[in-house]
Amino acid sequence: MILHAGLIALWSPAGWRGVLIEGPSGSGKSDLALRALGQGFRLVADDRVVIWESGGALYGRAPDTLAGRMEVRGLDVVTQPALAFCRIALAARPGVPDRIPAPARVEHLGLSLPLVILPLLEASAPGKLARALQHLGGGAEGAYQGACAAGRRRVRAGDSR
C-alpha cells in the first residue's frame, strides 16, 4: 500500500524506529522531516511511503523512483541520504493537541500505532517526536501515551512515585 506521507527514523537500542508523518499536501510534512534531519533523524521516504506488514509489525520505505529524494518547498527536489526501510513505531498528524492529550492510535493494514497530534511547523516538533519515540519502550505496546496516562492515574490516586 502507498500512503501520501513522509517517514523519518531515529536510532535507538532497539534499532531504527520510524515516524510516519501524515497530513494533506502543504501541511508541513517535508518541512518537519527536514528539520528533524538536523536533530539526528534519518530520512526514509518523503511524499510517498510504501507500507507493509511483517511479523505483526508495520514497515515502510520510499517508492523506488523517490528513494533518496526530498522535496524542499520553495527550493527544489534534493538528494538526501536515506535508509532503505524501517519499522514504523509512531504516527504523527498535523493539528493542535490538548495540553495533555488522551492516548490516540491510528490503524494501517490492520495494525495499530500510537498517534501524536502536533503543529508540524512548530519549532519544537522534531524534539517532541524524539521524546515520543524515547518513551515507546520495545514497541507500540509500550506507547508513551499509555505510560503518561498511567502516570497521571497514579498522581491522581495520590501515589507520589
TrEMBL record:
The keyword Transferase applies. Signal peptide: none annotated. Pfam families: Hpr_kinase_C. This is HPr kinase/phosphorylase. Residues 18-78 form the HPr kinase/phosphorylase C-terminal domain. Keywords: Kinase, Transferase. Transmembrane segments: none annotated. InterPro entries: Hpr_kin/Pase_C, P-loop_NTPase. GO terms for molecular function: kinase activity. It comes from the Bacteria. It comes from Phenylobacterium conjunctum.
